[in-house]
Amino acid sequence: MGYETEPPAATAREPRGAGRRAHPVGARLPPLLPGVPAPASRGRAWAARGPTGSGSPVEAGARHRRLVADGVRELAVAFDPPTRRGHDSDAPQARGQVGGGGVAVDSLDDMRVLFGGVPLDRVSTYLAAGAPAAVLVLLLQLTAEEQGVAAERLCGAMGNDILGEYRDGGAIFPPGPSLRLVADTLAYSGSALPRWTAISVSGAPAAAAGASAAGEVAFMVANGAAYVRAAVAAGTPADVAASRLSFSFAARSTLVEEAAAVRAARRIWTGTATELPGSRPAAAPPLRRTRRRGAELRPAWVDACGGPDIVESMARDIESAARALLREIAEAGGAVAAIEGGFWRKEAVRSRPAGPGVGRSVDPAVAARQTERLAKLRAWRDGRRVTTGLDRLRTDAAGHGNVLHPMKEALAAGATVGEVCDALREVWGRHPSAGG
After folding, report:
1. Helices 175-192 & 417-428, crossing angle to 10 degrees?
2. Which region, left, alpha or beta, applies to residue 131 given φ > 0 means left and ψ of -120 to 50 means alpha?
3. Alpha helices, DSSP H only, in 276-308?
4. Strands of 173-236, DSSP E
5. CA 436, CA 97: separation in Å to the nearest integer?
6. What is the longest distance spanned by two Cα atoms in the chain?
7. CA 321, CA 230: separation in Å to the nearest integer?
8. Antiparallel, parallel or unpaired: β 196-197 and 199-202
9. For the segment 92-123, what is each residue's pLDDT rounded down to a tens digit?
10. Predicted confidence band at 239 (pLDDT cuts at 50, 70, 90)?
11. DSSP code, position 38
């Protein structure tokens, strides 16, 4: 699946014809009305229908260039398990997993290769990044800057649903520091990356583990609200933080259920967003979707007539059940406490393998190549600059500064993904699910 994200600002468009129940396909709609949301832009070239490669950056980068030459303007990148857990390819924790189910990215050099020849001012990128999303988007920004692309022209989104990572065994840091990193990422993207969606809250992991549509909606709304609250506590206005979020829904077994879940989530999120601390009801942004390319027309077909009775009836049922679950989550102490206490398992009753790439074949040659590249990087880089950047990162992590600024400095100097995450682990500790 490829991905696209609706733009941060949405403008309303009136339905054609007075008294018509249906809204035109592509209309910007208030959250309580049926209809089909407009695509992110018109006239855009087609998108890749799946993550654009696995293995080494060299292999995936070559595929990127072929796709762009064929007219692709939206790329989705999945990263291998070691990268998603903040480990370098030569770390003991990475053994047997390098390049499995995604691309191995250890440094700025790898990101340069991955996007070499890709015009980052004209191609939108989705990074299925997980817990170290902040590190990876900074590597992308540094790569764009080397191409002469200003940060404000970088467009895309990243999978950075850290509370979902706690459910699925992909968390790196304890909950408090993880929300701190989310808040810093929202603040940084709001000022430095205006066209970038900092967090894509995903319902797919909960749905894959067995959660109902109501459970998926409830956890997405609860997680999104937790991220905005963390950002507000760190000084970012609620409406600014909420505008940097998008929501990625799972593919449901029927078109009707999928359309109904989206409709219910829009209604619940609209009410939730206006009640967040520091929110301004008139400025509260509507729910935006990180849409699955190729699947978007499926719920659109169901919803195009303005809402058949069956869709609206199911949406009301999902909304009612999701609101009941949200009340239970609130009573449990909020999204973090509910997840850590195992509350979500009441909804997710089927087991699922944790982490990406499970069961995928792994080429040992990829690990050997990445180990060689890391050895050369460490031999050639300015070790003093790297040490200075990592020391500043530890200092800011222990204090109140936005950690993305020293993180970018360290990465630009040649620090690796693993070294940056290890520096944060030294200060913040590690979550038990991270292992090693």
Report:
1. 130
2. alpha
3. 297-303
4. 196-197, 199-202
5. 14
6. 71
7. 26
8. unpaired
9. 999 999 998 899 999 999 999 999 999 999 99
10. confident
11. P
Residue with tokens 């950002």: 231
Backbone angles phi, psi at 46, to 5 degrees: -70, 160
The b-or-e profile of 34-70 (16+ CB within 10 A means b, else e) is bbbbbbbeeeeeebbeebbbbbbbbbbbbbbeebbee
Q: Can you read off the two tokens belonging to residue 190?
A: 């709001």
Write the CA distances from 213 to 40, 160, 242, integer angstroms: 25, 21, 22
- pLDDT-derived band at 356 (thresholds 50, 70, 90) equals very low
User: In sequence order, what are the residues at sequence separation of 6 or more whose Cβ sits closer than 8 angstroms to the Cβ of residue 72?
Assistant: 45, 46, 47, 48, 123
Top pLDDT among 344 and 40 is at 344
Yes or no: say if 159 and 413 are a contact pair by the CB < 8 Å rule.
Answer: no
C-alpha–C-alpha distance, residues 211 and 227, integer Å? 21
Return phi, psi of residue 100, to 5°. -85, 120
Sign of the dihedral defined by the CA atoms of residues 2, 121, 403, 378, in that order: positive
Quote the tokens at residue 69.
């030459």
How far apart, in whole angstroms, are the C-alpha atoms of residue 111 and residue 354?
26
Which 8-state DSSP code applies to residue 344? G
Residue from 298, 166, 280, 267 nearest 228 by CA: 280
Closest CA to 397 of 388, 410, 384, 406: 406
Please give the structure tokens belonging to residue 283. 């400025």
How confident is the model over 259-283, as pLDDT tens digits?
888 889 999 988 888 888 777 665 5
Closest C-alpha among 289, 374, 378, 404 to residue 83 = 374
Contact 314, 257 (CB under 8 A): yes
Q: Give me the DSSP letters along 236-262.
A: --HHHHHHTEEEEPPPPSSHHHHHHHH
Alpha-carbon span 167 to 24, nearest angstrom: 39
pTM, two decimals, is 0.81
Would you report the helix, strand and coil content of the chain in percent, each value rounded to 5? 50, 10, 40
Query: Rounded to whole angstroms, how far apart are CA atoms 83 and 81?
Result: 5
Segments in 234-334 forming alpha helices (H): 238-243, 255-275, 297-303, 309-331
Q: Is the pLDDT of residue 289 over 60?
A: yes
Please, are residues 276 and 230 in contact by the beta-carbon 8 Å criterion?
no
- DSSP 8-state class, residue 105: -
pLDDT digits (tens, 9 = 90+) for 382-407: 999 999 999 999 999 999 999 999 99
